[in-house]
Amino acid sequence: MKVIKWISEKESEGKKESIGGMGGWFNFKETGLRWKDYIEIWQDIAKPYAGAIRESVVKNKLRLTGNDHQYSGSGVPLFEDDTIGSFSFRGWGDIMAAIWSEEENKDYNYMDFYM
Hints:
Number of helices: 6
Largest sheet: 2 strands, antiparallel
Shape: globular
Radius of gyration: 13 Å
Structural class: alpha+beta
Strand order of the largest sheet: 1-3
Order of helices and strands: EHEHHHEEHH
Number of strands: 4
């Protein structure tokens, strides 16, 4: 699975959601969580989508907040199967914290990317 484009929420209307939802408060009370810990929360069918977000975020050095995800012109991942990833502010903060905690070996939590 690949992210082919980052689109606006308006452009995402009517598209099927393949991954997303509410946040799990990643690394809020514990420290030292990384991508391997985060990816375990997803069902196997959603894991390729999460991995595609991670690959695109790292490749493009994206540090998007939940606000960026929902309200910027290019915050929603569009996948090659024409589905999207749509998250709450906390949910987006979770995935970004997991990605950048792994990449930078730093203990981020969802609040670092919430808004």
